Amino acid sequence: MVHGLWSVATAVAAVTIAGTPAVAGAPVTYHRTVTLGTLGGASSAPQGLNDERAVVGWAETGDGRTHPFLWRDGRMTDLGTLDDGDGGWGIAAAVNRWGTVAGQSRGPAGTRAVRWQNGGITDLGTLGGDYSFATAINDSGTIAGASTTPDGSLHAFVWRRGTMTDLGVPGAREAFAEDIDNRGRIVGWRAAGDGTAAAYLWERGTVTFLPALGQGGRARAINERGDVAGAVLAGGSSRAARWRGTHLELLGNLPGGNAAGALAVNDDGVILGVGNVAPGSAEDHAFLWRHGTLVDLSTSGVPNSAVGLDDRLEIIGTVPNAAGDGPLAALFVPAG
């Protein structure tokens, strides 16, 4: 393991605050739902996808275990775990354009960040602790995630060419890495000892905290243009946000709602998120943000379980399984 000394930059921001935008008629119509199946069990759920329509996640096996899957060309494949016994389980979190997958699996030594490539599984190790997990992978095979350290704290890492490196996010009780682009830029967030969260961008050893409104933020995704999507806390509510450099833009709320968060952003700058439709309501709707407008996807059949978006505006999420007692991984395909 390599531990480096990192420089820290603090961003000073301009902020754009959008009001509650009108919902456009239907700029995107989702006409087809593709259910991805399971590995012999009842349930499954996606975690990530690439622009070649490969989807990864977890699925139940016939004996009730949770195994990682890769779905492409209409077929779900069990990626395997570090432990082939009853205690083995795994979750695939992200897939790059070449079909290399990152995630986590439990083996004899505990739960570890792993890479699946060419039919094999690689334990990526830890930062000296007993637990790690991977969340993102870029096209060169660089992986981002988080690991415990010898003192039990959780630190964000980058794994490259066999070496796991602590990102050195300062002031963190816990630090999470959420996404990585093909330039190796990593976004995520850290939780401080007082419970506040701060979104950050890591690039070439430098951690830059992204602007917020004094109440914290979380960065969830980055595209190849450097657009960062996530959420900030404003007035006690989560607000969907986009960062471009040091500029923070609040994306607004769905009509009637007062809370939202962004989950993914594609290379065209279209953002996927989830928001409520009434203050205090447990009912959330998935939305797309494009051309400055929030589009409620509930009328298009896309559920609030949406978690990922590709450059063709295909969305991954879940629908109820056949028994109605669990999720089933699904791909939502737009018309045209």
UniProtKB/TrEMBL annotation:
Annotated keywords: Signal
Signal peptide, first to last residue: 1-24
Keyword Signal in record: yes
Superkingdom in the source lineage: Bacteria
InterPro entries given in the database record: HAF_rpt
Protein name: Putative HAF family extracellular repeat protein
Species annotation: Pseudosporangium ferrugineum
